[in-house]
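Render this sequence as a predicted structure.
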Amino acid sequence: MRRDFPTTLLTKPLTRLVAPLCLLLVLAGCAQQEDLSLPGITRDSLWQNVQKRCLAPSDARHPDCAIVDHKRGFVLYKDAIGTSHYLVIPDHEVSGVEAHTVWQHGQPNQWAFGWDARGMVGKALGKALPDDMLGLAINARASRSQDQLHIHLDCISEAARAFVHGSAGDIGTTWSALQFQGKPVRAVLIPSPPASMDFNAFDMVRESLDLSPEAVTDRGLFVTYVVRPEGKSGFVVVDEPVDRQAGSNGHASDFLDRRCRLAGG
């Protein structure tokens, strides 16, 4: 099981601190792969926390609730791990990518909401960041620990930058089968000279598969923006279906970097 707390905490003198630390991280909003065998940690801990901190009728809203937009139906929530890591979460209960409603056309656009809020990443780091350094990712059910839909917002990783630029000749306006870190993915470019997101990544993937919402299988998705001085600039959408035989678990947040090293974070 993937763990995102520092491995230095696993040294023998600090072993007794691991359980309470993991619990603290979950209750503070960590939506990665925590150890769910620990007391008090369940698959709905994130949703319970967001409800109490961001959605309760109270004048005192927790500082981790960066944006609460009831009109659009989403919360931008500060994750516990990573200075600039945020989560885009519906203000109502939705389990994740396996929920059929996620893939139905005409749903509120969680991706566009997250992209509109991307300035929060630079604000957290104390510097403005270019659009092509930012990304959004959602993990498959097979690689997440929390059963409330959440899209990760942060800087992209060095590997993601190499992928979207190194595969520039292969990522066109029709879907292409590629490899990311040895895992099979599909990618497509959606031309958009101004970095304004007017599409829903869930719709793009479902329509490309020509499936009904009920037939879409478990997968992770990643979206970033690319600037091509000699070519079409726009958004790259990466689809990472869960494929056990190929070693893919749909952990699309591998495209992001909680340390934001590309920005010197």
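Summary. Residues 1-37 have pLDDT under 50 and may be disordered. The longest helix spans residues 15-27.
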